Recover the amino acids of this structure.
């Protein structure tokens, strides 16, 4: 199991009588692009918050980068990166100020931050915009910068929560090229999305429906299993089957 950087066993999160995450089990390998798919309200973000060390589960077991989600949340935070669609950068700071701030949060030295900042700005083609406020950048550039900042400290795992919401198809494809590059460098990518076409870009996917894992496999195997040509159709069948079971 040494190559498994995330292990979940019957992980559950309950709020009063409402079960947001219902006994989910899966594991994720080093360098894998693991898609965590489902409609809004399916339990994706709640599960991710537990795995990021931001919330305690109600029951079950889980380790992230070898650390226990109950007892070692701070160690988890030091070994992961995180990017959210809702908040990832400070828009009233410049590009460089954002990079420097998050580099400091991740514990990098001033010299290392300067070295990595120069390399990152050049790589993203933001040399001319380095001293501009992030709020003035187009959304696509903000998303690319946010992802780059999330892996600035070379974490074992990066968690991406709906990272491509609101961006155009070309920028989404470019963003996924960055994800491939990170995975090739050995960073595990755990990504939540409700865009079913993005499942095609993942090595394996979990499909969440009403807090439960309804499917877990490669996109190709799932499409073959259900005899369909797209992940949209897979998800439709899973959601319809879960509704019939509930009825």
């Amino acid at each position: 199991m040494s190559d498994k950087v995330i292990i979940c066993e019957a992980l559950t999160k309950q709020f009063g009588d409402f079960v947001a995450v219902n006994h989910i089990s899966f594991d994720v390998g080093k360098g894998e692009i693991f898609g965590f798919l489902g409609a809004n309200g399916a339990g994706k973000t709640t599960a991710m918050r537990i795995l990021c060390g931001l919330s305690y589960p109600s029951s079950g077991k889980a380790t992230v980068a070898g650390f226990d989600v109950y007892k070692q949340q701070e160690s988890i935070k030091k070994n992961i990166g995180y990017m959210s669609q809702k908040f990832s950068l400070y828009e009233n700071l410049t590009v460089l100020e954002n990079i420097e701030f998050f580099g400091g949060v991740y514990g990098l030295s001033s010299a290392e931050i300067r070295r990595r900042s120069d390399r990152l700005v050049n790589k993203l083609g933001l040399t001319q915009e380095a001293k501009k406020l992030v709020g003035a950048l187009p959304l696509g550039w903000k998303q690319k910068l946010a992802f780059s900042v999330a892996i600035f400290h070379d974490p074992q795992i990066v968690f991406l929560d709906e990272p491509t919401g609101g961006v155009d198809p070309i920028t989404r494809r470019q963003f996924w090229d960055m994800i491939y590059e990170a995975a090739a460098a050995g960073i595990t990518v755990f990504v939540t999305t409700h865009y079913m076409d993005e499942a095609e870009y993942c090595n394996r996917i979990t499909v969440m429906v009403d807090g439960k894992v309804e499917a877990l496999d490669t996109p190709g195997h799932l499409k073959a299993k259900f005899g369909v040509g797209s992940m949209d159709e897979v998800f439709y069948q899973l959601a319809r089957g879960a509704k019939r079971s509930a009825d």
Q: What stands out?
A: The mean pLDDT is 91. The beta strands are 4-15, 18-29, 33-37, 59-64, 67-68, 80-84, 157-161, 188-193, 204-209, 212-217. The radius of gyration is 18 Å.
